[in-house]
Amino acid sequence: MAENPAGQHEKITMAQALNRALRDAMTEDDSVLMFGEDVGPLGGVFRITDGLTAEFGENRCFDTPLAESGIVGMAVGLAMNGMRPVVEMQFDAFAYPAFEQVVSHVAKLRNRTKGKLAMPITIRIPYAGGIGGVEHHCDSSEAYYVHTPGLTVLAPATVADGYAMLRAAIASPDPVVVLEPKKLYFSKDEVDLEVPQPGIGRAVVRREGTDATLIAYGTSVPLALEAADVAAAEGRSLQVVDVRSLVPFDDETVCAAVRSTGRAVVVAESAGFASVASEITARVTERCFHHLAAPVRRVTGFDIPYPPPKLERYHLPSVDRILDAVDSLQWDDA
Amino acid sequence: MSHADLLPADVPVQLIDPDGRVTASADALPSPEALLRAHEALVIGRRINDQAYALVRQGRLAVYPSSHGQEACEVAATLVLEQQDWLFPTYRDTVSIVSRGVDPVEVLVLLKGDWHSGYDPVATKVAPQATPLATQLLHAVGVAHAATLRGEDTVVMAMCGDGATSEGDFHEALNFAAVFKAPVVFFVQNNEFAISVPLARQSVAPSLAHKGVGYGVRGQRVDGNDVAALLSVLGAAVEAARSGEGPQLVEAHTYRMQAHTNADDATRYRTDDDVEAWRSRDPLLRSAAYLTAQGLLTDDRVAEMDEKAEQVAAAMRAGLMADVQPDPQELFQHVYAEPTPQLREQAAFLAEELSREDAV
Ligand SMILES: Cc1ncc(C[n+]2csc(CCOP(=O)(O)OP(=O)(O)O)c2C)c(N)n1
C-alpha cells in the first residue's frame, strides 16, 4: 500500500482497488486468467484490467471475440481443465446473451457431477445506474443471478470491499457473480488493502443507529448512509446495514440489526417486484415479526425498464424517499 | 490459407460402400486390426441401443435417445482419441461414452433419473452429458485452450447434431476455437432430423461442413455409416488439431433409424419408405460384409463379439434392475462447496420431515 509523505494511506478509487485485486490474484496463482471484451491492451472500458496484459502477457489477460455466451462457455471449459477464469461482462445488460451458460452450466456443474467438477469462475459485471447511461447500460440484474442456486452473488459498496470481495470471489471454489457498482467505480477512499474484510456471506453494520435500520447493498449503500446523515440532523438515529453478499445471505447480522431497532427499510435500485429487496423484506418479516413496530418497507426503483438518462432520477431511490419510508414506520410520537 | 482449402469435398468421403465393397484405393483404409476393433465396438454399440430401448419399455429408464443407425459415428469418434484427449458428447452419445470405456450403467444414470451425471468427468475425460443444445461446444473450446496454455498434447472431440448447428453457441464455439487455434474437432452427426424438423429447415447451406469456411475452420464431409471412412476422416482431423493446425469441422451424413426418443412418434414427420431406404446402409451390415469378404471376420470372431455384447447387455440389465434410492440429503450437498446457511436450514427441514414420515 502506497503511503504519502505524511505517512498516511493514499486515497484510491474502487476501480483501482479492483485492478489491484486482479493483479494480486494473478501474481499469486498462475491459473488465474482474465478475459472478455476490450480487457486486454485497452484495460477494459472502465480500466479495471488496466496494465494486466502488459504485466502478465496475453495468455493471462486477453480479448476474446465479441460473444458473451462464448466468453462464459469457454470459461466453463477452462475451469474444467484446471484454470481459474475471471471474465468481464462489459455492461450489465450485455451479460444476457451468456445467461444460458451461467444458469445451465456455470451454476449447475458442481451439482450435476456431485462435486467432481468445481467451477471456480468469477463473472464481473459492472451493474446499476445513476451514471446517465443510455439503455442497456444501467440494469440491476441481481435478481436473475440470486434466483439461481449454485451461484454466489456479491455486491461490494466500498473501496476496501472492492478489493477484498473480488479476491474472495477469485479464491472461491464456486462460481461468483461480482456486481460492481459502476456509479462507485471512481469513488475514492483512504484504505489499507491489507486489512482483512469480512468474508463472503457476511453483512456489515456500516453505521450504528437506534431508531430504524436501513438495509442496502451496492450503489444503495452510500445513499442509505447519506439518508442517515440527514436523519441524524433531524434527530432520528438510523442504522445502516450493508448486505455485501446477496448469496449466501447473512440472516443473522441483518436480523440482529433489525431486532435492535424494531423498524426496517430495504433500499435497492432495481425494479422492486420479485426483487432482492422483496426477499430481504420477507426474510426479515418472517424472522423478526415480534420485534417489529411496523411493516418492513421497501424503497426501490419502479417496475419499469431502466429509464433514459433524463428521467433516471425519478426512478432511483433517493434520500427523500428513504426518509419518507422511515417516517411511515408508525412512530409513537407521530 | 485460401478458402478453397477449407472447403469439404463435394461428396462425403466414403471408403466402403453399402455392399461392403471398397470404393477407394485399398491403402486409404484403416488397418484390419483397427477395422475389427471398430466392428466389435459397433456390435456392442448396437446391443446397447437395443437393450436400452427394451429397458425403457420395462420402465427402467425414463427416456432413451437411441443412436441406432449412427453407431459408426459413435464408435469412430472415440476410437480416434488418445488417453489424454477429451470427449464432449451430447445426450444421444451413450455409445460413444461406453466406447471410451465408461460403464454403461454409470452413463445411464442421467436417463434413469438417479442423478444428472453418473461418471467422473475428470477421471474419464468425458464431459458430463447435458441437454441444452450446442452449449458443450464452448466448454470443449475452453478445455482445449487450457490444454494449449499448459502445453499439453490434448485434443477435444466435441459432438453435436444437425439441429444444434443452428444454435448461437455452435457459431461462437467455432469462432472462438479458430481465433484461439484450439485443438478441437467439431463432429456433427447429421442424422437428417432435429426431433421432427428436417435438415432443410435448419439450413440451406451446401452442407453443414461448409459452415466452417466463414470462421476459417476446415470442413470435411464423411459417410456416417461407413466406419472405415469415419476412422480415416476423424483420425486425420484429430491429427491436424494435434499438430497445431487449429480446429476442424467434420460432418457425418447418417440417419436416425428410431424416433428422437421413445417418447416421440416419428410417423408424424417421416414415412416408412424413407427409413427403409436407409436400412440397407446400416453401418454394421456394411462393416461385416467388408470384413467377411476379406476373410477377417470368421464365425469364431463373430461369436466372440456377440458374446462380449451379451455380457455388456447383461451388466446393463443387472445394473438398471437394481433399485437405487438416491439419498435426499445429497440434494443439498453439491450446490456449493460449503452449503449456505439457507441450505443447511432446508436440509434440516427435510431431514425432520423425513424422520416424521419414517415414524408414521
Ligand atoms: C437449447 C435447446 N433448445 C431445445 C432443446 C430441445 N431439444 C432436445 S433435442 C432437440 C433436437 C436436436 O436435434 P439435433 O441437434 O439434430 O440432434 P439429434 O437429436 O438429431 O441427435 C431439441 C429441439 C434443447 N435440448 N436445447
UniProtKB/TrEMBL annotation, chain A:
The molecular function terms in GO held by this entry are: magnesium ion binding; oxidoreductase activity
Start and end of every Transketolase-like pyrimidine-binding domain?
Answer: 12-187
Q: Does the keyword Magnesium apply?
A: no
Required cofactors, per record? thiamine diphosphate
Pfam families according to UniProt: Transket_pyr, Transketolase_C
Residues that span the membrane, as ranges: none
Listed CDD domains: TPP_PYR_E1-PDHc-beta_like
Q: Which UniProt keywords apply?
A: Oxidoreductase, Thiamine pyrophosphate
Could you tell me which PANTHER family the record lists for this protein?
PYRUVATE DEHYDROGENASE E1 COMPONENT BETA SUBUNIT, PYRUVATE DEHYDROGENASE E1 COMPONENT SUBUNIT BETA
* Protein name as annotated: Alpha-ketoacid dehydrogenase subunit beta
Could you tell me which species this protein originates from?
Aeromicrobium fastidiosum
Q: What is the lineage of its organism?
A: Bacteria, Bacillati, Actinomycetota, Actinomycetes, Propionibacteriales
TrEMBL record, chain B:
Keyword Signal attached: no
- Kindly list the cofactors needed: thiamine diphosphate
Give the species: Aeromicrobium fastidiosum
Q: Domain (Dehydrogenase E1 component): give its ranges.
A: 43-311
Specify the protein name.
Pyruvate dehydrogenase (Acetyl-transferring) E1 component subunit alpha
Mention any Pfam family matching this sequence: E1_dh
Q: Which UniProt keywords apply?
A: Oxidoreductase, Pyruvate, Thiamine pyrophosphate
Entry's Gene Ontology BP terms: branched-chain amino acid catabolic process
Q: State whether keyword Oxidoreductase applies.
A: yes
Instruction: Look up the domain of life of the source.
Output: Bacteria
Q: Which GO terms describe its molecular function?
A: magnesium ion binding; oxidoreductase activity, acting on the aldehyde or oxo group of donors, disulfide as acceptor
Q: Which SUPFAM superfamilies match?
A: Thiamin diphosphate-binding fold (THDP-binding)
Matching entries from InterPro entries are given as: Alpha-ketoacid_DH_E1_comp, DH_E1, PdhA/BkdA, THDP-binding
Which PANTHER family does the record match to this protein?
2-OXOISOVALERATE DEHYDROGENASE SUBUNIT ALPHA, MITOCHONDRIAL (PTHR43380:SF1)
